[in-house]
């Protein structure tokens, strides 16, 4: 019988964790949101307050509904507060040791049937979950940025993920109004494996002065119907995140398409991380 998923934990309230929290709360779930410190909590809470006040301003939500939604999320800096969650989604920085440590800790906190999901975009879900006592209940649940808008969720099954866990996570993603796809534990899964070769190529073209950044982006927007050009999209993703994803995929595939363009590294070193730092390929207010 399918699991009842009513209470969900989110660990890490960066861009993705905050966006995932918003998706869950908008779908009537009770959410326990965790970050390491008060600053992280304030960022997550601020994200949800800002996004829902925008929805009220656009008359897409009324004030009582907003209050109810905000009240359905509790914030904490203590992982132990996730004890009665049916599902926990981890969205902390892309460092394998850090993720493995959090999963190991979560394993000792939540009930035996609870599913532990990682929003990792390129690390191995198998390696993240292997040090827990429940490798069969570990999956990837990879959302796309901005999570409240984009419908794809990649459900990543490892060789030991139990079938009913995959089925329940797929059904849960559908309940959130998402379009789940199921994929094995391969670097980049489906979307990033296809997308990042293209993004990396765009950086190389820009670096070799093939065309201006505006023209490179305009070509893909107006010629191919993409909502954003590749350089603007890299700014949205974050150049540091993009670099990490490319490096992981290159290490696994040795496909030259995924060898990060040198310019990416230089921009990151100079602090140009994209929207989050105010400047990347473009400058933001
Ligand atoms: N959070 C919540 N809602 C947001 C949002 C955010 N961060 N950004 C935009 N929205 C909402 C807006 O409120 C608006 O909602 P309504 O229609 O209800 O009013 C809607 O999205 C459209 O936004 P805008 O009108 O401001 O702007 P737009 O139409 O230009 O769309 C966009 C903006 C959604 C970002 C769109 O340009 C887009 O889809 N771009 C491509 C993004 C993409 O490819 N993401 C994948 C990155 S790869 C990844 O995430 C994987 C990984 O592992 C790195």
From TrEMBL:
Molecular function terms from GO: 3-hydroxybutyryl-CoA dehydrogenase activity; NAD+ binding
The keyword Oxidoreductase is annotated on this UniProt entry: yes
UniProt KW keywords: Oxidoreductase
Annotated coiled-coil segments of the chain: none
Domain named 3-hydroxyacyl-CoA dehydrogenase NAD binding: residues: 8-185
Residue ranges annotated for the 3-hydroxyacyl-CoA dehydrogenase C-terminal domain, each copy included: 188-284
Gene Ontology process terms (BP): fatty acid beta-oxidation
Entry similarity comment: Belongs to the 3-hydroxyacyl-CoA dehydrogenase family.
The name this protein goes by in its record: 3-hydroxybutyryl-CoA dehydrogenase
The organism of origin for this protein: Herbihabitans rhizosphaerae
């Amino acid at each position: 019988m399918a699991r009842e998923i009513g209470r969900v934990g989110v660990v890490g309230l960066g861009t993705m964790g905050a966006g995932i929290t918003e998706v869950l709360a908008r779908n009537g779930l009770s959410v326990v949101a965790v970050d390491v410190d008060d600053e992280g909590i304030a960022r997550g809470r601020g994200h949800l307050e800002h996004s829902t006040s925008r929805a009220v301003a656009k008359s897409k939500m009324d004030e009582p509904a907003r209050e109810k939604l905000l009240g359905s999320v509790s914030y904490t800096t203590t992982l132990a507060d996730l004890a009665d969650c049916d599902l926990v989604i981890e969205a902390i920085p892309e460092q394998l040791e850090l993720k493995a440590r959090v999963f190991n800790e979560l394993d000792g906190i939540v009930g035996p049937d609870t599913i532990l999901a990682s929003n990792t975009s390129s690390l191995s879900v198998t390696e993240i979950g292997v040090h827990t006592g429940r490798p069969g209940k570990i999956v990837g649940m990879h959302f796309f940025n901005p999570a409240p808008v984009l419908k794809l969720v990649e459900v990543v099954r490892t060789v030991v993920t139990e079938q009913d866990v995959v089925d329940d996570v797929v059904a849960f993603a559908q309940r959130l109004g998402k379009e789940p796809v199921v994929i094995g534990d391969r670097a980049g899964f489906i979307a990033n494996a296809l997308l990042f070769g293209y993004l990396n190529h765009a950086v190389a073209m820009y670096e070799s002065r093939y065309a201006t950044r505006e023209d490179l982006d305009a070509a893909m927007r107006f010629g191919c119907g993409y909502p954003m050009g590749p350089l603007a999209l890299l700014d949205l993703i974050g150049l540091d995140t993009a670099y990490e994803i490319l490096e992981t995929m290159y290490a696994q595939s040795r496909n030259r398409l995924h060898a990060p363009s040198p310019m990416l590294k230089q921009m990151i070193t100079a602090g140009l991380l994209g929207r989050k730092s105010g400047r990347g390929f473009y400058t933001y207010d």
